[in-house]
């Protein structure tokens, strides 16, 4: 029983990371009906920016101060948000009225650009994060080991999802986001600056992805330039499972996928984890094609 509970704790931790990255996918799709394939690489960029801040200021293996950890997260969010805005201006805006396949090809090209750029800057080798970035606190609850890092990841992902949901559904600018997601032409007629809305989405989504990417580095204590494809793919699957375009759906899908992957790796085989994940995706699409909570699609009359 303790093994099962431990796998559930591990699954919720990984699922929280998936959920943070999945929120970026679902926001961009909600506005542009576009899958931002470079989003996973933006998350990894956040991990490398955070590593640069932490690794560049530590000496002698001493644990970093709280202000340095906060600075790493702030730097990751700022740099990745700027990268997201630059991505929208250069790769997506010129193709906004082109065939949808053109935007997909542009997204894949942007992914390769970020991936190779990180390889050139931080080298193709795996980079190791400093140990004890967060407080080394562990709780033992009936045979289950719970660390401070795991609690922080799960709590932060839930808190950020709630904050994003309240922002989109209970603020004036959030109303503009929802209006642009329903009909951009009608939103323009109502005086909404749609370009500004789209830019805000490319700031919020990458910012959440940067936090998720830095959590990956802190939790697994390593980062490599090409891991964005794996985590981005899992986050994309999580968004589909929950209902792409749906903020609570992305969160639910991420947590469920993390739990499923953890149980599959622990009780079946880690080598079959990816195949089992795609099997789950196929099953959910067969039973409920719009995802568990349903894709947010407006009806036009």
Automatic annotation (TrEMBL):
This is ABC transporter permease. GO terms for biological process: D-alanine transmembrane transport; L-alanine transport; L-isoleucine import across plasma membrane. It holds the Pfam family BPD_transp_2. Belongs to the binding-protein-dependent transport system permease family. LivHM subfamily. PANTHER family: BRANCHED-CHAIN AMINO ACID TRANSPORT SYSTEM PERMEASE PROTEIN LIVH, HIGH-AFFINITY BRANCHED-CHAIN AMINO ACID TRANSPORT SYSTEM PERMEASE PROTEIN LIVH. The keyword Hydrolase does not apply. Keywords: Amino-acid transport, Cell inner membrane, Cell membrane, Membrane, Transmembrane, Transmembrane helix, Transport. It is found in: Cell inner membrane. The chain crosses the membrane at residues 12-35, 42-59, 65-89, 101-122, 142-168, 197-220, 275-294. One of its GO terms (cellular component) is plasma membrane. It comes from Acidihalobacter yilgarnensis. GO terms for molecular function: L-isoleucine transmembrane transporter activity; L-leucine transmembrane transporter activity; L-phenylalanine transmembrane transporter activity; L-valine transmembrane transporter activity. Coiled coil: none annotated. It is a multi-pass membrane protein.
């Amino acid at each position: 029983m303790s093994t099962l509970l431990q796998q559930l704790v591990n699954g919720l931790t990984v699922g929280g990371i998936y959920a943070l990255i999945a929120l970026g996918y679902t926001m961009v799709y909600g506005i542009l009906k576009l899958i931002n394939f470079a989003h996973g690489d933006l998350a990894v960029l956040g991990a490398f920016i955070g590593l640069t801040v932490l690794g560049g200021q530590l000496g002698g293996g001493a644990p970093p101060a709280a202000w340095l950890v906060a600075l790493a997260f702030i730097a990751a969010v700022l740099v990745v948000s700027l990268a997201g805005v630059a991505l929208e201006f250069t790769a997506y805006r010129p193709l906004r009225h082109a065939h949808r396949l053109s935007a997909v090809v542009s997204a894949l090209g942007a992914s390769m650009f970020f991936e190779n750029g990180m390889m050139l800057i931080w080298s193709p080798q795996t980079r190791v994060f400093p140990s004890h970035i967060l407080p080394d606190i562990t709780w033992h609850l009936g045979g289950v080991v719970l660390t401070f890092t795991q609690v922080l990841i799960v709590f932060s992902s839930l808190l950020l999802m709630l904050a994003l949901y309240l922002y989109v559904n209970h603020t004036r600018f959030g109303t503009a986001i929802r209006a642009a997601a329903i009909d951009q032409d009608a939103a323009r007629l109502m005086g909404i600056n749609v370009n500004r809305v789209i830019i805000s989405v490319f700031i919020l989504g990458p910012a959440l992805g940067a936090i998720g990417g830095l959590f990956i580095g802190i939790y697994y204590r390593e980062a490599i330039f090409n891991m964005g494809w794996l985590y981005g793919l899992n986050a994309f699957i999580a968004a589909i499972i929950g209902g792409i375009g749906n903020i609570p759906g992305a969160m639910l899908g991420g947590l469920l996928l993390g739990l499923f992957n953890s149980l599959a790796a622990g009780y079946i085989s880690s080598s079959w984890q990816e195949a089992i994940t795609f099997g789950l995706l196929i099953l959910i699409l067969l039973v409920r094609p719009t995802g568990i909570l349903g894709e947010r699609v407006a009806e036009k009359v």
